[in-house]
Amino acid sequence: MKRIGLSLIFGALFLLNSGLNYANTDKSQELQPAASGEVEITMLKYKFIPEVMEIKAGQTVRWVNKEKRQYHSVWFEQLGEAESDYLFPDESFQKTFNKPGKYPYRCGPHEEMTGIIIVR
Known about the structure:
120 residues; alpha/beta; Immunoglobulin-like; 2 domains; four-stranded mixed sheet; three-stranded mixed sheet; 1 helix; 7 strands; globular
C-alpha cells in the first residue's frame, strides 16, 4: 500500500514538473522574434502591442487595429515618411524592413501611441 501511495505521489510530481517545464518553454518561444515572414503588431487601447518589435532584415511587419470603434495610423515621422491611411477596426497596414536599424513610429492622431521596430 505504501509503494502505491509513493508511486502516485512521485507520478503526480513528475507530471506537474513536466507541465511547468512545457509552459516555460512555450512562453519563451513566444518572446522570440520570428525568423522570417510576417510579424504582427496589435493596435489596442491606444497602444501598439508590443511597443518594441525586434525583427530580421527582410521581414514584414503588419499592424492590425483591434479597437472596437477607434481609428489609428502608423507614421514613421522621424524618417520623413508619409503617414499611413487611417486604419479603422480590423483594417491593417504593412511595411517590409530591409535595412538594419531602429525605426521609431507613432500613431498620427494619438501622439502618445509610440513604438519602435529594431531590425537586425
